[in-house]
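Teaching assistant here, posting this on the class forum so everyone can see the example we discussed in section. The complex has two components, and the goal was to see what a joint structure prediction looks like when all of them are supplied at once.
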Amino acid sequence: MAAKTLTIDGKPISAEEGATILQASEEAGAKIPTLCHLDGVYDVGACRLCLVEVTGVPKLLPACTTTVAEGMDVKTDSERLRRYRRMILELLFAERNHVCAVCVSNGHCELQTLAYNHGMDHVRYDYLFPKWGVDNTHPLFGMDHNRCILCTRCVRVCWHIEGAGTKNVSGRGAQARIITDLNIPWGESDSCTRCGKCVQACPTGALSHKGSTVGEMERDRGKLEFIVLAREKKQWVTAD
Amino acid sequence: MKVRLATVWFGGCSGCHMSFLDLDEFLIDLAEKIELVYSPVVDTKEYPEGVDVCLIEGAICNEDNLELLQKIRQRTRVLVSFGDCAVTGNVPAIRNQLGLGNEESVLQRAYIENAQHNPSLPREDGIVPPLLPRVMPVHEVVHVEHYLPGCPPPAERIKALVSQMLSGVEPKLEGAALKFG
């Protein structure tokens, strides 16, 4: 494949044609914050946290779904980007009921970590306090919609890695939610294989192993990457 | 001159104040630099004038909270939202999910449905403050200068922020010192 040359944070880089800015930035050593991106599955640009500035383009572009182009000049960090990223994080916290103090993922949460990295010491927007339920019908796992940020990682691992297609998205905007099959209680699903990849993929406390309490939910993302690498490249490499 | 410090306890579990007491020997150093003019741990009935700093624990849940908070803002130079309930609403604000006008239903649930003895609503004009329709974080009501999240913020973090303030540095929590929950 043809190589493209571009500049990321002032550093000249060459990347494969079709590579995303996010992939190319790794080579440049630029760490772009991500949330819906998950190594091993395709990107959808759902969370907007990886927005970058591209010279000559008036709007900000998501690094995970924008492919590199010849002569592109990308900026991954600026006052403006940091301002927007913090704003996005605050809006995510305001949109649902992320009560960290009573969350299974407290202390191991990607949303929390990103918030701290962006200096979020409070949320400037009014919390919406929507009424969402918890689906505890599955024998092994629980789904707390209050803590879901609609990154769709669970949907993508369910379809792309497991191939079960149990998890889906229903509704639009702030009313969108993760559903099981055609919106049935998770415990009644025939398609769910109980593999737990969705639980491994979830960045917050929305999906958890039953029986875990505050701060107990830790995940092993390496397992997902291991499966994909083994399947697609026939390489059996563990993260450690 | 000593810094006039106040602390107040609104809708919270008092855990933040317990954490403050966990400052242990630092409290002795602190006593040389501050005068504690109002707090659940001192016996002052009326919030005084001319307070330099007030640490505010808890969310704004009832009419008493609201009235006192407004008085505190008028009489205090620097307000610190102290702990997750003050910063986010946290657990006390979970009742907001029931929508506006949930005051009756939450009281009903707590004092009638779940009562084992003498089910009755606590109601005494002028003594039991009515609940607000919606629980609010402190900064939704008044301007707040600094935020100290945590449930509760550990003593080390309180010490870091208070020390920064006492040495005249603009307080800023970052890295491991910035944490919710």
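For the discussion questions: Helices of chain B lie at 15-21, 26-33, 63-75, 84-88, 103-113, 155-166. The first strand of chain B starts at residue 3 and ends at 9. Think about how each of these relates to the inputs above.
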